[in-house]
Amino acid sequence: MKIYDEVTDLLVEANELVNGDRKITHGDFADNHEGIAKIWSVILKTPIRPDQVTLCMAGVKIARASNPKAYVRDNYVDGAAYLSMTNALQKKRNGDL
Q1: How many angstroms separate the CA atoms of 58 and 13, rounded?
Q2: CA atoms 71, 74, 77, 79: torsion sign
Q3: Which among 3, 13, 28 has a CA at the least distance from the CA of 73?
Q4: Contact 13, 77 (CB under 8 A)
Q5: CA atoms of 11 and 7, how far apart (whole Å)
Q6: What is the DSSP string of 36-72?
Q7: How far apart are CA 40 and CA 26, in angstroms?
Q8: How far apart are the C-alpha atoms of 70 and 77, rounded to whole Å?
Q9: Which pLDDT does position 31 carry in this prediction?
């Protein structure tokens, strides 16, 4: 497998999670992260936006991926998915969607 194929495969897998299995189990990502933002806002006692939730979740995946003792593909797939969701949520917030 060429290195560029791996990039494409990872992004395709991330897309399939957002629009497939995870959509079935977690619901629409925008609605899901809106609910998470509301819960985090209460816990943290400060307003949290859904795009901030997805950025934080991407940060979790980046932190896990930085462990030099283990390679876990899921961290990269989920990280790509969270960043793509962040992009969509920020574009929606800015009125670009």
Answers
A1: 16
A2: negative
A3: 13
A4: yes
A5: 6
A6: HHHHHHHHHTS---HHHHHHHHHHHHHHHHT-TT---
A7: 17
A8: 15
A9: 96
**pLDDT single digits (tens) 76-97:** 999 999 999 999 999 999 999 7
CA distance 73 to 39: 29
User: Which pLDDT score is estimated for 1?
Assistant: 62
pLDDT tens profile 13-43:
999 999 998 898 999 999 999 999 999 999 9
Task: Check: CB of residue 33 under 8 Å from CB of residue 47.
Answer: no
Please state the rounded mean pLDDT for residues 65-75: 96
Write the single-letter amino acid at 66.
S
The pair of three-digit structure tokens given for residue 64, joined into one six-digit string: 């896990």
